[in-house]
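ARCHIVE CARD
CATEGORY: sequence design from structure
SOURCE FIELD: tokenized fold
FIELD CONTENT:
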């Protein structure tokens, strides 16, 4: 019997579960889990698709529209889903340790737990800010935000982080508040450490996004980083004091400490170093994909676009490993298509040196996102899609 353990229910592992359900490894008949024992370790019964989170916040989607049913995918694939968080593993004994005290032995391990948002670098953030990760906690905080703003004559909301996620979220929040709260009750501001918005994209993308912020009345503070959060506001590294009642944090991805602590090879930032087979450069029976991984031969930005594209080749190489066949190289595309929503039925597209914008771009993004969810949610009961049974907020 071979034991495969999947750590995390990220975008890449969604493809792995779907691939195992569609076609088990060669020589492994359906209904015979004793031949290959596969365990998924993930704390949630679903995955919130991050690409649709701003659309939910803006009111375009019900929350159930944005969920991939991990439980159902695992069941279809004959995979045991252990609802817990991985806190570490020992490559020497090939054992994974979970937050609830459970442990699992493995012959092959695949890691797709995503990146984390490290608040330790932001003094006061743990007490006075809501991070966008983990997404489930962020959603819970946002569901009560509108009522909080309604109950006050004036609320200042600050989002820290000028990346694509931060920009999409603050523009989505602007639309949500305009639909549910009287004008003037909320003041929104964006703090970004970069000189311009999305410096890794064409300059036209940043200019278009700045125009969207201005049109939405959102205050924009470029080239600023937060020195400390405190009750009633935050202090910037420039010495400026900003009034703020609610702070949201969507800064860059950080690596979880446990892979390096376990002895896996990592890059300078702590992300798992993998080769072109998405295989650990230090442990051949360990694979990693998504934001937690860093490809040594083909470095790419941390992005859901690359995580989704890494899923099928990861599934193929896990299958080949279990079957004892040679692995196949995966070379990520040089340019990724980014579709950045701007709150309403409008979006901006960025691909290499090119960019476009318009309502047609939003419709394009909407079709892609809905198709991605539909692929993994076929024949799924509505109840399996709900983050909370009490969630009833409609678009």
């Amino acid at each position: 019997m071979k034991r495969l353990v999947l750590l995390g229910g990220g975008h890449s592992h969604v493809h792995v579960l779907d691939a195992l359900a569609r076609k088990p490894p060669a020589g492994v008949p359906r209904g015979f889990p004793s031949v290959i024992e596969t365990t998924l370790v993930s704390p949630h019964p679903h995955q919130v698709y991050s690409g649709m989170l701003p659309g939910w916040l803006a009111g375009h989607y019900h929350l159930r529209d944005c969920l991939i049913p991990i439980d159902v995918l695992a069941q279809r694939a004959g995979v045991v889903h252990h609802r817990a968080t991985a806190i570490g593993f020992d490559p020497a004994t090939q054992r994974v340790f979970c937050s609830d005290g459970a442990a699992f032995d493995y012959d092959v391990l695949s890691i797709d737990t995503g990146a984390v948002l490290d608040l330790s670098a932001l003094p006061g953030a743990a007490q006075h800010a809501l991070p966008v990760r983990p997404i489930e906690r962020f959603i819970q905080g946002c569901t009560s935000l509108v009522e909080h703003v309604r109950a006050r004559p004036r609320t200042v909301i600050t989002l820290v982080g000028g990346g694509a996620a931060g920009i999409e979220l603050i523009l989505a929040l602007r639309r949500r508040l305009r639909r549910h709260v009287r004008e003037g009750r909320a003041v929104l501001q964006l703090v970004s450490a970069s000189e311009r918005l999305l410096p890794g994209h064409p300059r036209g993308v940043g200019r278009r996004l700045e125009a969207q912020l201005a049109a939405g009345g959102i205050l924009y503070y470029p080239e600023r980083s937060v020195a400390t959060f405190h009750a009633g506001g935050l202090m910037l590294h420039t010495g400026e004091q900003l009034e703020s009642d609610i702070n949201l944090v969507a800064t860059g991805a950080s690596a979880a400490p446990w892979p390096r602590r376990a002895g896996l090879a990592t890059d300078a930032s702590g992300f798992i170093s993998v080769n072109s087979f998405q295989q650990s450069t230090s442990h051949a029976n360990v694979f990693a994909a998504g934001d937690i991984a860093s490809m040594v031969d083909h470095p790419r930005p941390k992005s859901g676009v690359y995580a989704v594209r890494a899923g099928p080749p990861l599934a193929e190489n896990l299958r080949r490993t279990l079957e004892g066949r040679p692995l196949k190289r995966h070379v990520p595309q040089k340019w990724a298509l980014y579709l950045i929503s701007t709150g309403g039925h409008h979006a901006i597209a960025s691909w290499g040196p090119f960019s476009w914008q318009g309502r047609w771009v939003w419709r394009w993004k909407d079709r892609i996102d809905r198709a991605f969810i539909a692929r993994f949610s076929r024949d799924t009961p509505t109840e399996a899609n709900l983050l909370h049974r009490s969630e009833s907020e409609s678009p």
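CARD ANNOTATION: The two ends are 48 Å apart (CA to CA). The first strand starts at residue 2 and ends at 7.
SHELF: design records, drawer C
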